[in-house]
Write a structure and sequence with these properties.
Elements lengths: L6 E10 L6 E4 L6 H4 L8 E4 L14 E5 L12 E5 L4 E3 L4 H4 E3 L5 E3 L4 E5 L2 E7 L5 E7 L4 E8 L6 E5 L7 E6 L6 E7 L4 E3 L5 E7 L2 E8 L6 E7 L4 E9 L54
Parallel strand pairs: 1-20, 5-10, 9-15
Antiparallel strand pairs: 1-17, 2-3, 4-16, 4-18, 5-6, 7-8, 10-13, 11-12, 11-14, 14-15, 18-19
Length: 298
């Protein structure tokens, strides 16, 4: 659908300062560590990377959303579908190359998904690909209120419910109640004018009706930044955002950034000397194929 006189918003989100370290989750603290070790560092810990910073400080996985848009392009309302795969949440439609990325040495590893968007009153369903039990917990993060709590046994399909956010709250966290490192964050939107930043921090939102709007940039561990823009008919507006690494706020109830248990104190079944996903040559799997159990060498 064309938007008469529609304009374009372009820009970039950057991170100033030192990149925060990953949080560390010792597998010995969680059930089924012998299975979840496939996403570990091989030394009994899961490292949760939450800040993907590219060229010149470009910050990936920030949400940029235009607010107060009353008309414009269609906003299809669909159910949010997710899967649990190798002790992580993934959007069900995620392609292979969105879940597995190359190391600097060209080998594959499983990337932790981080940020998405949701609508208020949207239905969510999760399918469990893992042979172990998980637990879906969704929070209204501003107050920590839990709005969904559903068990997810092996083979479960379409487990979930409706997400009802109250009092205009916009930030959500989905976490496994059994595996604290299984996390995904979401920003609640009410129109189709939003996007996630790419690996270089760049974003583009097009077909905006001419007018004045508030634009919000959000990352899970920062307060949202708000700015105002005026979009001219058939024109373009450039808008940049900068987050300060010194202002990172992580939930106090979660594991410490540098808390590790040495491999000498861990059961052998939690250790791995080779990563299963790093054994597969790049390009061997098609983009949309999920790895099967036979591909994953312990």
């Amino acid at each position: 659908m064309d938007v008469k006189g529609g304009g374009t918003l372009i820009g970039r989100v950057t991170l100033k300062g030192e990149i925060p370290p990953p949080r560390v989750f010792p597998l010995v603290l969680y059930p089924f560590g012998a299975f979840c070790k496939r996403i570990s560092d091989g030394q009994g810990n899961v490292l949760l990377e939450e800040f993907y910073v590219g060229t010149d400080g470009g910050l990936k996985d920030s949400v940029v959303a235009v607010e107060q848009v009353k008309k414009g392009k269609p906003f299809p309302h669909v159910n949010a579908k997710w899967v649990t795969e190798d002790c992580m949440f993934h959007p069900a439609e995620a392609a292979f190359n969105d879940k597995y990325v190359k190391d600097e040495d060209g080998k594959l590893h499983h990337e932790h998904p981080l940020v998405t968007v949701l609508e208020n009153h949207q239905a969510i369903s999760v399918q469990n690909y893992d042979p172990i039990i998980h637990n879906i917990q969704v929070f209204q993060n501003e107050k920590g209120n839990i709005i969904l709590n559903v068990p997810l046994p092996p083979g479960a399909k379409d487990a979930g419910g409706k997400l009802n956010f109250t009092r205009g709250r916009r930030i959500s966290q989905m976490i496994c109640g059994m595996h604290e490192f299984m996390q995904s964050w979401a920003f609640v939107v009410d129109n189709p004018y939003y996007t996630n930043t790419k690996k270089d921090g760049e974003f583009k939102i097009d077909r905006l009706p001419p007018g004045t709007y508030k634009v919000v940039a959000w990352h899970p561990h920062f307060k949202p930044i708000e700015k105002q823009i005026t979009v001219p008919a058939n024109g373009a507006v450039t808008l940049n955002f900068e987050f300060d690494a010194g202002e990172v706020k992580r939930p106090i109830y979660e594991s410490q950034e540098k808390f590790r248990i040495g491999p000498e104190a861990l059961p052998e079944e939690h250790l791995m000397h080779t990563h299963p996903f790093r054994q597969r040559p790049p390009g061997e799997e098609p983009q949309d194929k999920r790895p099967n159990e036979g591909d994953q060498k312990e």
